[in-house]
# Entry
Amino acid sequence: MSKKMIIGIVITAVAITLLVATVAGARESDPVLDSLYEQIFGLRKEVVERRVELDELTPEEGDYKLEQMEERFQERTEEGFRPFNGMFGGGWGHHGHHGDGTGSHDHCVR
# Structure
């Protein structure tokens, strides 16, 4: 087999791999679902702000949580929201600790 043939096969394989990965990662945007995710995110921010007002969190802890939540929301907005990826669940967190529903981990900031 000639070098040109091998190079052509490799280039074709890479192109097909990139095409499949792009199509597999693409998700049709659903405006209603996107709006719901934004509403949930807004409510979670309000929860953190209220917890600061009630002195359940220090202002620094609240700012940290809000910053982390914003970063995660932006990442998921860019990557596409996948079901059950842990963003909106307040269920069991790391090491058996129950989550606070803000999408962050209390034990990480205290």
Observations:
- The chain has a mean pLDDT of 75.
- Residues 33 and 48 are 23 Å apart (CA to CA).
